[in-house]
Amino acid sequence: MILQIDNLSFSYDNTPLISGLSLSADKGEIVSLLGPNGSGKTTLLDCILGFHKNISGNVKVCDKDVLSLSRPELAKLVSYVPQTHTPVFPYTVREIVLMGRTAQSGLLGAPGKEDFEKCDFAIARIGIGHFADKPYTSLSGGERKLVLLARALAQKAPLIVLDEPTSSLDFKNELLFLEILTDLVRSDGISAVMATHDLQHPLYFESQGIKTKAVMLCKNSRIRTGCPGKIITAETLLDVYGVIASIQEIKCEDGRVLKTIAVLGNKIK
Amino acid sequence: MERAKFSGRLSLPVTVLLLVLPFATVFASLFFGRYHLSLNEVILSVFGSDSIPLTSRVTVLQLRLPRAIAAAFVGASLAVSGAAFQSVFRNPLVNSGILGVSNGAGFGACLAIVFFGGGVFTYIFSFVFAVAAVVLSCFAGRVSRVTTSVTMILGGVIVGAFFSALVSIMKFVADPYSQLPSITFWFMGSFASVNYSHLYAALPMSIGMLMIFLSRWKLNVLSMGEREASSLGVDVRKAQILIIGGATLCTASAVCISGTIGWVGLVIPHIGRMITGNSNQKLIPVSISLGSSFMVIMDLLSRTLTGSEIPIGILCALIGTPFFVYLLKKTKGGFRA
Predict the structure, then answer these.
(1) What ipTM does this complex have?
(2) More exposed terminus of chain B, fewer Cβ within 10 Å: N or C?
(3) Distance from C-alpha of B91 to C-alpha of B88, rounded to nearest angstrom
């Protein structure tokens, strides 16, 4: 198992936020973290990234407890695609991607020849070579996300953690991002944990035939874990979000069956 | 071609230029001054020839040379610590004195001038209180569980204000005819009294600059924010201690031999950004070179422009500001997106 979480509980100032969560991710598997605002998606990502020390239960990446690892050691196992942000200084895309190699050099080190090659490879793999020498701050939201994904790829960690990576992207860029991520998981055997508000994402991953599961976090309800088709049901959406919806199946000409969510209304009027 | 750009390092000609520039300015500054010396006299003095008058040799080797070397070290120290602080605190408006160094050192200098008659005590006290101000600032900024760059800067501002009040008290109690002018001149900054014994301060400055130079890649990563830097594999606490420690050694030593010269630590890093871009891998060496050359030239001007010396702090701002604005217009600001 790449990621193994056993009976994880976490409280903010004595208010329990996550209680008794167990979750695993295999090599080449995408886990979608779902749930309303404030349900603990980002908190769970933070636990995987080792930012919360006072947790009960275990978070292991590649059979190593994340809290027992130093920062460089953990960075070699888990890479991170943060939510959209603007750096203070306009570094070039290459300089940003190269930051993914930081863990490979010590406290006083700087990237060397091998790091430049890994960085080159990541830029080519994500397909952002044509703007690699532009300042990061001059890019559009979609381009920035691809740069951050390339940086995570340059980190060469078996697990990528993504925090709402498509939240600011337009229709096409969102699909482009999901396609690249799916390809990384399928072809390179990378595992991913992705927090998202779009319930269509886990259904998309399922339709692509890659190993995937969804986790539905909810403050006032049990945590649901399983394959996306079983988690995203009319019953769950009503219970967790209070939204009345219907899951429709669309049969494509090429034989695929796609699921889509038709929203009917809000329970609370 | 693509490769050279990609290495993130400075090209060879630029590296050579940056290495030569400080030495060239120090050497050039030996030729100028109120005591007129011919080209031959200066060169022969430097090479220790006995064939020229003692006065000439003393002027070149005992007055102009130590002064230029001190200016070079101080300029480099202030510029490099300004650049480091700007990245660590993720704030382009920060300068080398952000953690209360100048006011702390100022208070130390006042104490020495008022109670111990100045002299060597001025250097010791200003160094000790400069370091104390940084430690206090870091402590003040860490009161809340999470230390962010904002609370650190706030800590620095508050501690700076505290020491500035203490300086005012010292000015109030100081003797207005002898001690008060000394205090005032100290705050304006000057290399006028520098001799070789002051160059002991070059050791802590060199150590501090080395600490920052070796961390220059980490500065890029740290400027992305603590969360991201951690997730990229930087031990943020260790890196901050190393960099802030280095910058403190630099600024405290600089301030105690030259008084407060605030401007250099803010603007030289920005001039560097306009020339070579934002990556600290290039910016740190560029700041060292530009800072030292700039300060040597400013000191040269401060002792030659008029009959009496112009305090260098004043001159830096007067000449540096228009120069900065010119560069900003010309390069459209390397800082802007």
Answers:
(1) 0.90
(2) N
(3) 8
